[in-house]
Amino acid sequence: MNGLIGLGGVLALLLVVGACVGVMDRRRFSWRWLMAAALLVAINDALLTGVYGLLPDVIGGSWNWQGKLLALAATLAIAASPAFGWRRSGFTLLQTPGSLKSALPVAVLYCAFFVVIALAFPGGTTTGEDIAFQLTLPGLEEEPFYRGILLFALCQAFTGTKRFLGVDWSWGAVLSCLLFGMAHAFGFSHGAFSFDPMTMALTALPSFIAVWLRLRTGSLLLPILLHNFGNAISMIL
User: Fold this and answer.
1) Are 47 and 71 in contact (CB under 8 A)?
2) What are the two backbone dihedrals, phi and then psi, of residue 44, each rounded to the nearest 5 degrees?
3) For residues 179 and 16, what is the distance between their CA atoms, to the nearest angstrom?
């Protein structure tokens, strides 16, 4: 129940903020795609939670292997549909010609930032499963969803763009970053909503870099690799 209430809060924020942004530029706003984005968030959340505990966990382990794999399977199925498409959702190893010249230095700075964070805030004891999970599924599941199909849906909902740092930003790109931060920082438990500003900053801000990389290169490859690096480096160090 707490998970459903938390999801309801996130969806309400998405629809209210999306509607406010949309009415300012109605000619380049699609209610249909905004609702599709909200449905994607709901599906992703349901699968990550094993449909809120109704599905038995047949994989087990200390981490949510099953939920992540189910959510990834749904993302891949949606990306394969004609309305989305593999390439348009970023599922390609091909990089936009000339993009790596600017993308690789940003990737290096991204890695350096997380190395500094890892050294400043060392983690506790880790297991092989901890490292194996952080090196794989967070990036493999979250990037294709947030920087793949959800970003595509939101960019279809808000088609107006502004050129900044070599890529075309839309309100959809901004909302995808905020939703990623909210997924980590916002929740509902013990009868009240909770929000952690530090978690929001440490997730939403790097997601702007991930979106820039996705838009600049046209591929999810670098965002996935950097996401898993950022998650695992503190454990490795």
Assistant:
1) yes
2) -60, -45
3) 13
Widest pairwise Cα distance in the chain: 54
The pair of three-digit structure tokens given for residue 102, joined into one six-digit string: 């600017």
- Residue of 174, 212, 195, 225 whose CA lies nearest to 10: 195
**Buried residues in 120-144 as b, exposed as e (16+ CB within 10 A):** eeeeeeeeeebeebbbbbbbbbbbb
Q: What would the pLDDT profile of 141-183 be if each residue is shown by its tens digit?
A: 999 999 999 999 999 999 999 999 999 999 999 999 999 999 9
Enumerate the β-bridge partners of residue 188: 193
**121's tokens:** 């805030």
Instruction: For residue 47, give both structure tokens.
Output: 């699968």
- pLDDT tens digits along 32-74: 999 999 999 999 999 999 999 999 999 999 999 999 999 999 9
Write out the two tokens for 2: 């707490």
Per-residue buried b or exposed e for 152-176, using 16+ beta carbons within 10 Å of the residue's own CB:
bbbbbbbeebeeeeebebbbbbbbb
Classify residue 118 as exposed, middle or buried by CB count within 10 Å of its CB (0-12, 13-18, 19+): middle
Closest-CA residue to 13 (of 141, 187, 146)? 187
**Is the pTM above the cut of 0.85?**
yes
Structure tokens, 6: 């938390």
* Rounded CA separation 166/123 (Å): 36
Contact 44, 74 (CB under 8 A): yes
